[in-house]
Specification:
Layout: H1 6-21, H2 41-57, H3 66-101, H4 114-118, H5 120-129, H6 139-159, H7 161-178, E1 183-184, E2 189-190, H8 195-208, H9 214-221, H10 223-242, H11 268-281, H12 285-289, H13 293-304, H14 306-327, H15 331-362
Antiparallel strand pairs: 1-2
Helix pairs in contact: 1-2, 1-13, 1-14, 2-6, 2-8, 3-6, 3-14, 6-7, 6-8, 7-8, 10-11, 13-15, 14-15
Length: 387
């Protein structure tokens, strides 16, 4: 198990705030940073996912061959895909059960779920293809696509980090210029988070995580200067969020997406603000962990087990929405929802690590066809891998 660290801490912070913000209207969402930030926890989560990718593909002692690298990353994409299917099925069951229990048919239309019940044959195909997504359950589909394309990013990085960046920026500019996005089906529309544009912040996280080459070397060498440059962007984005300012689509020039604050296409203003936040707050973990070690340990635990925690948080946020729908959105109900949710996220992280510790103590089990060993060497603790 990794000790608490900055990457896990901020990933845990993103997971906790995503849970809160995915219960719209809840009293405590006014205290999350998206109220004073042009970007939000989604950008943070994807950037840190790219950062973690660096540690998956980089092993100085034993570099992975291209074939094993592709297998490892595609295998990770399959795990994330399976998690998306699981939580989607659970969410549909929760919506259906709540509609029956509370005698509230309108619940069946929540969050793009109506098609599941009105046109189940085609919609279930769409769920499997990820072309139909429930509202608030659309981050993992993006993550599946990014991890499926991660081998290309990693192999380009091996050739040249700057080549990987150039290709990523070119794809981003192409998608932004033409408004290119993946279609949804059977309900006509487009993905809420466009993988063709969001891949850039994922790639930036991956490249900046490299300490001794390319963009990572540049970021570390000029970190102090970059931090000063980031301040006006962070302040401007905070003021725009505070005063709820957004450019008028009728007043900005073409191509409009370059000048909007569009989340679906990760418009440049949101992207720049997210990167500026990274530049400004990188290294601040030690100033938080020293006076608040329990908070640092808790959020780092969430970050170490991000996939499990995210899945549980997504389901709990839906349950919180239904609770507020049925019992009313007051500070009492909201407090109960938050307490249950935050405790459950912590329990999820603890159980995930307890299971891993148990497996480590048990060690490898002999196969049925092999004779039992009289003795075995002590089992070392598992190598911590980014989640």
């Amino acid at each position: 198990m990794r000790a608490p660290n900055e990457i896990d801490f901020w990933r845990g912070f993103a997971l906790a705030t995503i849970f809160i913000n995915h219960v719209p209207g809840i009293f405590y969402e006014r205290f999350t940073h998206r109220n004073v930030s042009l970007s939000d926890s989604a950008e943070m989560f994807v950037f840190l996912a790219g950062w973690s990718l660096r540690f998956v593909v980089t092993n100085p002692g034993q570099p992975l061959s291209a074939f094993r690298l592709v297998l490892r990353l595609v295998g990770r994409a399959v795990v994330i895909y399976a998690a998306q299917i699981l939580i989607t099925v659970i969410a549909i069951a929760i919506i259906a059960a709540a509609s029956i229990y509370f005698d509230a048919p309108p619940l069946l239309e929540w969050h793009n779920a109506a098609a599941v019940f009105e046109e189940p044959v085609a919609t279930h195909v769409g769920l499997v293809l990820l072309s139909h997504q429930l509202g608030y359950f659309n981050i993992l589909p993006l993550y599946v696509v990014l991890m499926t394309g991660a081998p290309i990013v990693a192999l380009l990085d091996r050739a040249s980090p700057w080549l990987a960046l150039a290709v990523s920026v070119a794809v981003y500019g192409f998608a932004l210029f033409g408004g290119v996005n993946l279609p949804t089906w059977p309900v006509e529309g487009r993905w809420f988070l466009d993988p063709l544009t969001w891949q850039l912040i994922f790639v930036l996280g991956f490249l900046i995580a490299a300490p001794g080459a390319g963009l990572g070397l540049f970021a570390r060498r000029y970190h102090h200067a970059l931090r000063l440059v980031a301040i006006p962007f962070v302040v401007a984005g905070g003021l725009a969020a505070w005063f709820q300012y957004s450019p008028d689509p009728l007043r900005v020039p073409d191509p409009k997406l370059f000048f909007m604050f569009d989340k679906t296409f990760l418009s440049p203003a949101r992207l720049i603000h997210a990167v500026a936040l990274v530049a400004l707050f990188a290294g601040s973990y030690r100033y938080i962990a020293w006076p608040l070690p329990p908070l640092a340990a808790y959020l780092s635990m969430l970050g170490r087990n991000s996939l499990n925690v995210f899945c549980v948080g997504s389901v709990l946020s839906l349950a919180g929405q239904i609770a507020r729908f049925e019992y009313g959105g007051g500070i009492g109900t909201d407090t109960v929802v938050i307490i249950i949710g935050i405790v459950a996220l912590g329990v999820t992280g603890w159980v995930s690590e307890w299971r891993d510790r148990l497996r480590a103590r048990q060690g490898p089990q002999p196969s049925p066809s092999s004779p039992p060993q009289l003795s075995s060497p002590p089992v070392s603790s598992r190598r911590a891998q980014p989640t």
